[in-house]
Specification:
Blueprint lengths: L4 E12 L5 H5 L2 E11 L2 H6 L8 H14 L5 H14 L6 E8 L11 E8 L4
Antiparallel strand pairs: 1-2, 2-3, 3-4
Length: 125
């Protein structure tokens, strides 16, 4: 690997049903994802050709679909599924970082957000 550059995807939102509490799996809630894709971008920096870079639209669409359609007890598991999917979209990806946020978690007297962040390398899967 000559260089490790990054493509940052922010503001990915979808309504899903992941959570440990019954109301989370029945009523659902919004999730927000930030994904960083690590790969060598030296070729597209020179060629200016779309096929030489990563099609990040696929990652956005698949992330939204996973959040909407998959149900887990833990957001850690949901984040792991998103990371695994992202790595599978392009063999040129060396690493992916996923930050998954619950903007309004159902915690009494808590107005903050809850987020998990994971990083996975291609070798880890």
């Amino acid at each position: 690997m000559d260089s490790l550059d990054a493509i940052h995807l922010t503001g990915i939102r979808a309504y899903g049903y992941t959570g440990a509490l019954p109301e989370e799996t029945v009523l659902g809630q919004w999730f927000e994802a930030e994904i960083t894709l690590y790969l060598d971008l030296s070729l597209p920096c020179q060629s200016d050709h779309l096929p030489d870079t990563h099609n990040y639209c696929t990652v956005v669409e698949h992330t939204q679909r996973i959040i909407r359609e998959r149900r887990f007890a833990l957001i850690e598991r949901l984040a792991g599924e998103i990371a695994q999917m992202a790595l599978a979209t392009d063999e040129r990806l060396h690493r992916v970082r996923v930050k998954l946020t619950k903007p309004t978690p159902p915690i009494p007297d808590f107005s903050g957000q809850v987020a998990v962040e994971i990083t996975r390398d291609r070798m880890q899967g």
